[in-house]
Amino acid sequence: MFGVLRISTAAAVLVGTALVTPGVAVADGPTVIELESLGGGQSGARDINDKGAAVGFADTGTGERHAVRWDSRGRIIDLGTLGHRGSEGNQINATGMVAGTVDLGEARHQAARWDRFGNGTLLELLHPGEQSDVSDISDTGIVVGNATSPDLDRWSFHAVRWERDGSVVDLGLSDVDSGAEAVNNAGTTVGWTYLPDTSVRAVRWDRDGTTTYLDQLPGTTSSYAFDINDRGEIVGTAYAPDRTRAVRWDAAGRVTELGVLPGGRSSVAQAVSEDGTVVGNSTVDDQHESYSAVRWNPDGTMTDLGAQLPGERSVAHGINDAGTIIGESGVDTLDSYAVRWDASGNVVELPPLAGGTAGTALAINDSGTIAGWSDKNEVWFRAVLWVE
Fold first, then answer.
1. Using CA atoms, how far apart are residues 2 and 72, in angstroms rounded to an integer?
2. What's the CA gap between 40 and 132, in Å, rounded?
């Protein structure tokens, strides 16, 4: 899926069709825009669709956290808390439907879905008194995620799918943990499950209820699936005692190792575009825990995307169908900043807000609008987007 936003109407200028507050630009690069808030200290945006609508959260002036959606003109819509303690928006689909969670209090959360008009519904729990969270939403409104079950302890989950009417389908085996990570527009869900021997296996759940255990990479003992495109290609990682490997499964469930950068021992595939291009990360020096963002082309060719500056680490978070990749670069995770790689692998810094030094790009739509967060005056983080 895609990404994030905040826009103030005060002292705004028109950029394309978006009403935005002028931000900071890198020479010949993107401009950062702070998205509108609800008056509180922090906000965050996590997903953006191809119409430019974004979703995330914003704190109110009284300290409550609310799920919010920003429309393509940057106007904020408070999705509310559905009568509970707080809420957050996680994903948005092509029609503007939002999937997120509601804070029920006492360390419990419940998955929720809001329609394009902002009307929210709590999604059914597996059992009363349990909890749930969301991972993804399809353009048809199918939501996948995880829910607790009485046959497991409180902090264990089953993979679940919620139908358009909000009813829940338990995808998990009866007495072991499982997780649903992504769903495509055909309703095919991917994730993982523990097996009776305590190993973990990547799984595909088809819309008709068929469960397929994806092929295991030879020499590895466990695997996880993290993303699926509409062609049915799946990406994730396979584990061995001394290494991990980024992998791709074709629509038939056959596995291919994607490789690791020279000097490294571990890699992971995070996301796949519609043409089969994969992005993820690979270690380059395991002794010093150094890692780099990586792109694998559909033919398996691997490209080290590198970092903005020598000595930095980089992480790729997503890719759009034009091949533009977004993520972060920095000396460590506490001192990272947002970056973008074009289809040729050239990297450019995405500037922080005025007074800020750090940030990350979390999502990108097919128009190239990038969403994420930036710190501001080195104190609060704010939802932002970057535009050319």
1. 14
2. 26
- pLDDT tens digits, residue range 10-56? 222 222 223 233 333 344 679 999 999 999 989 999 999 999 999 99
Query: How far is 134 from 263, CA to CA, in rounded Å?
Result: 36
Amino acid residing at 173: L
What's the full length of the chain, in residues?
388
Query: How far is it, in rounded angstroms, from Cα 181 to Cα 270?
Result: 11
Residue 54's H or E segment, with its range, is: strand 54-60
**Single-letter amino acid, residue 88:** E
Give the integer Cα–Cα distance in Å for 104 and 116.
Answer: 23
Task: Determine the straight-line distance between the first and last CA of the chain, rounded to whole angstroms.
Answer: 21
> Nearest-CA neighbor of 2 among 75, 53, 39?
53
Phi, psi of 374 (to 5 degrees): -140, 145
pLDDT in tens, 219-230: 999 999 999 999
* 124: nearest Cα among 156, 164, 88: 164
Phi, then psi, of 333 in degrees rounded to 5: -65, -20
| Predicted TM-score (pTM) above 0.85 | yes
Alpha helices in 177-222 (DSSP H): none
- Which of 194, 179, 99, 109 shows the shortest CA–CA distance to 146? 179
Distance CA 164, CA 151 (A): 26
pLDDT at residue 145 tops 50: yes
- Sheet with 243-249, strands from edge to edge, namely 222-228, 234-240, 243-249, 255-259
| 309 DSSP 8-state letter | S
- Print burial letters for 131-165: b (CB count within 10 Å at least 16), e (below 16): bbbbbbbbeebbbbbbbbbeebeeebbbbbbbeee
What is the chain's alpha carbon radius of gyration, rounded to the nearest angstrom?
20
Residue type, 50: D
